[in-house]
Each structure stands twice: as structure tokens, then as C-alpha cells.
């Protein structure tokens, strides 16, 4: 994360969501209502103007993203799959009795804003770096606050998740919760990833889940997003948002068990790569962490 600057990646992902809606066939993949809400949020938060949104929906914008898809094969359309995956996990979890939703590194995602009115008995929380969260809050204020949506501006690189939530009177660490970490863990150092999973297990009740996406590692333990991995690592470092963490899919289960979670590959379809990412869902282990 660039120091005190809103996330460029969060802006890009939100714009890609809008562009995908203009690509034939993708409207059936994207969650219902996500595109108009994202457009409104981007403009209301002053992240972009209406002219940028109009251009983003143009055939030229689609062509640009498709032209650069060679660097991350399949990732353009896979962002729609990723949004659908996260929303599906939240809805299924709520259907199973979850009463809290926590989105980490929320960026300009609209899941909480859209679902909060539909599930008034569920508390939604979002945490993101203050530079991005301030813009998000401005947009939400303009679009209309939700009584059960809590926006928290915190740098989890400086404060522990447990400490942040402890000071929020609406948070119940005994409640069944689903945590969403979409395209987040790859931006954290290895020990920070381990610490985050430990903290997540400590602040939620029994039966809670965590849904996340991650980049795979190759046989040498190096991040692997295809033949242009080196170029992408360099570009991400150049914009100040480097990719730092990855893991071999076959090692994920043991990794999670050591940190208080039990992997549920059948639920996530984790043997399938979506673009350059894998998806995962884990349930809080009753035995705790090691």
C-alpha cells in the first residue's frame, strides 16, 4: 500500500466490474445490482468522474483489458467470478445462521452496502486503510447510510484486528461470522498472513467461516501467476502495492489448521483456478490455534 494514498488496485477492480457488465455474457456472472452500485459509489466518492465511468463501459475499454490479459491470463473475466464467489459465500453463510459479516480490505466493494438492507438482522463490517476508507465513506454518505453497516478506517499493518474490533461496541466476538478477504493476502508479508488468520479465529464465534482468494506458489515456493510472473511482480512493486505472499494449493490445508481453521475445499472448489487465483473457504476449528 502506497503510504497515505488510496489504493490504485481497489480503483482498478471497481472499474473492471463496470467494464465487465458491458462485455456480452458477463452480466449473468456478476452479482445482481453490483454494477449500478459500483458506478454510483465511484462517482459519489470522487474516485472517478462520470466521463470515466462512461468510457469504462465502452467497447474500447473492453478491448484494452482484453489486450493486457496476456499478462494475467483469464484474470479480466475472473474478477466477475471472484465477486460472485464472495457474495455466494456470504449469502450461504447467512442462510446457515451467520449474524456478522466482516470484509477485510474492502476497497470500493459494495457487497455490504447492497446486502445490509436485505438482511437487517445481520451486522456488516468493513475495514480498510484510512486513505481508501475515507473516500469509501464519502461515497456511502452520499448514496445513503445503512444502519447495520459499519465502516472502519484502520491500517491493519499498524493495529491488530483484535484491538480494532475490541473498541467497536457493535462487534460480538462470540457471534457466528463470515470473514471475506478478497484479493488481500497476496499483499501481506508471510508472517502478517499467519497473524491475520490467527486473529480472525480469535475474534469470531464457533461455526464461523473465512472466504478468501490467493495466488499459488510454484514448486520452489515462488509466486506463480503464469509466464510473466516476474514482470507482474516488478509492476506491482513499481506502483507501490507489491505482491508478497503465495502458497501451493496442496499446502493450504495444513497451513490453515495450524492457525485455527479447517479447510473446506469442496465448498470453494479450490482445485479450480479462476484466472490466476484460487479460492478457499475455511471454518473455525473448535480445537483452536497452535
Written account of the structure:
With 290 residues, this protein is α/β, with parallel strands linked by helices. It has a single domain, classed as Vaccinia Virus protein VP39 (Rossmann fold, 3-Layer(aba) Sandwich). Helix content is 41%, strand content 13%. The protein has twelve helices and seven strands. It has helices at 8-21, 34-44, 50-56, 59-67, 75-95, 111-115, 130-143, 161-166, 190-202, 229-238, 252-257, 265-268; strands spanning 100-104, 123-128, 149-153, 177-181, 209-214, 261-263, 278-284. Strands 3-2-1-4-5-7-6 form a seven-stranded mixed beta sheet. The two termini are 30 Å apart.
Number of helices: 12
What's the SSE pattern? HHHHHEHEHEHEHEHHEHE
Computed over alpha carbons, the radius of gyration is 18 Å
Total beta-strand segments: 7
The strand order across the widest sheet is: 3-2-1-4-5-7-6
Q: What do we call the CATH topology?
A: Rossmann fold
Overall mean confidence score, pLDDT: 92
The CATH architecture term is 3-Layer(aba) Sandwich
CATH homology superfamily: Vaccinia Virus protein VP39
Determine the N-to-C terminus distance: 30 Å
The amount of beta strand, in percent, is: 5-15%
Q: Would you identify the regions where 5 or more consecutive residues have pLDDT less than 50?
A: none
Summed up, the domain count is 1
Shape: globular
Outline the biggest β-sheet: 7 strands, mixed
Amino acid at each position: 500500500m502506497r503510504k497515505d494514498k488510496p489504493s490504485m488496485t481497489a480503483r482498478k477492480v471497481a472499474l473492471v466490474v463496470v467494464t465487465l457488465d458491458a462485455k456480452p455474457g458477463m452480466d449473468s456472472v456478476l452479482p445482481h445490482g453490483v454494477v449500478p452500485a459500483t458506478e454510483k459509489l465511484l462517482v459519489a466518492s470522487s474516485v472517478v468522474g462520470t466521463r470515466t465511468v462512461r468510457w469504462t463501459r465502452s467497447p474500447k475499454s473492453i478491448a484494452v483489458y482484453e489486450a493486457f490479459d496476456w499478462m494475467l491470463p483469464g484474470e479480466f473475466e475472473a474478477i466477475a467470478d471472484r465477486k460472485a464467489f464472495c457474495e455466494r459465500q456470504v449469502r450461504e453463510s447467512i442462510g446457515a445462521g451467520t449474524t456478522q459479516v466482516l470484509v477485510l480490505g474492502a476497497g470500493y466493494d459494495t457487497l455490504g452496502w447492497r446486502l445490509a438492507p436485505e438482511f437487517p438482522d445481520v451486522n456488516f463490517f468493513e475495514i480498510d486503510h484510512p486513505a481508501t476508507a475515507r473516500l469509501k465513506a464519502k461515497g456511502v454518505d452520499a448514496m445513503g447510510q445503512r444502519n447495520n453497516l459499519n465502516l472502519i478506517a484502520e491500517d491493519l499493518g499498524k493495529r491488530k484486528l483484535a484491538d480494532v474490533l475490541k473498541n467497536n461496541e457493535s462487534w460480538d466476538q462470540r457471534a457466528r461470522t463470515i470473514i471475506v478477504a478478497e484479493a488481500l493476502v497476496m499483499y501481506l508479508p508471510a508472517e502478517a498472513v499467519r497473524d491475520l488468520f490467527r486473529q480472525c479465529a480469535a475474534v469470531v464465534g464457533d461455526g464461523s467461516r473465512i472466504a478468501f482468494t490467493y495466488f499459488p506458489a510454484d514448486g520452489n515456493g515462488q509466486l506463480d501467476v503464469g509466464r510473466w510472473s516476474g514482470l507482474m511482480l516488478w509492476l506491482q512493486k513499481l506502483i507501490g502495492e507489491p505482491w508478497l505472499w503465495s502458497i501451493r494449493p496442496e499446502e493450504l490445508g495444513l497451513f490453515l489448521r495450524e492457525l485455527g481453521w479447517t479447510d473446506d475445499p469442496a465448498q470453494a472448489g479450490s482445485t479450480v483456478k479462476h484466472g490466476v487465483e484460487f479460492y478457499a473457504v475455511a471454518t473455525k476449528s473448535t480445537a483452536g490455534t497452535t
